[in-house]
Amino acid sequence: MDVNRGEPGVVADDFDARGESVERGAGGLLATAIHLLGSVLVASSVFLRGVIATYPLLIWVAAFYWTTLITLTISIAQQVRKAPAAANHRAANHG
Q1: In the predicted model, is pLDDT for residue 70 greater than 90?
Q2: What separation in angstroms does the CA of 9 have from each of 15, 28, 78?
Q3: Each residue of 20-39: pLDDT tens digit?
Q4: Which of 31, 9, 24, 8 lies closest to 85, judged by CA?
Q5: For FRET with 32, which of 6, 12, 41, 74 sits at 20 to 30 Å CA-CA?
Q6: Whole-angstrom Cα distance, residue 36 to residue 60?
Q7: Global pTM?
Q8: Between the CA of residue 80 and those of 15, 18, 32, 88, what are the distances in Å?
Q9: Which of 6, 12, 19, 7 is nearest to 91 (CA)?
Q10: Helices in the chain by DSSP H: which ranges?
């Protein structure tokens, strides 16, 4: 890819050539962001309601967060690796 060609959409064509793995990677990034925000929402709602306002709960929530984040990240990495590399397929269709 030559960025200096001055053609519009060069970067978009490069991402399009990568195919489904980029889409899955972006989806994985979105999933980890939702995971973070959901965890913060659950933890803050428990503390604000005063259900259990102790530090051991915070430690358990943090442990649960990191465990589920590691599991989610491994799952995302496996999905990205399984995604077909569409660069060769795209070149065959346009050649």
Answers
A1: yes
A2: 10, 24, 30
A3: 778 888 888 899 999 999 98
A4: 24
A5: 12
A6: 15
A7: 0.58
A8: 14, 11, 14, 17
A9: 19
A10: 10-18, 20-49, 55-82, 87-94
